[in-house]
Amino acid sequence: MRNWSSTTRSPTLGPRNARLVIDYVVHYRKANGSLSPKVFKLTSRDLLPGERRSGVRRHPLRPLSTRRYHPGAHRVQLQITGRPYKSCAFTLHIPPEATFG
């Protein structure tokens, strides 16, 4: 997966800080074609009212004994304090000679 980036703005417009728990969800393609979500922790941040934060995350897709990768469309999604936000699709191409799982 290539790097993906996101910008987050504090949902607080009043005088109080907002405590955000930021995760990302990778929706992996299963053998039957459905998607299975896996949540990965990013960070917890305190944002001032109106403050913006941006960041870039790289997620490796390397062979693991606990996960089998399947070619096709997958999705990555931002989740802030348990609430899912925009997602974007990416396509995983696996050469026939590769052993992924």
TrEMBL record:
It comes from the Bacteria. This is Uncharacterized protein. The lineage of its organism: Bacteria, Bacillati, Actinomycetota, Actinomycetes, Kitasatosporales.
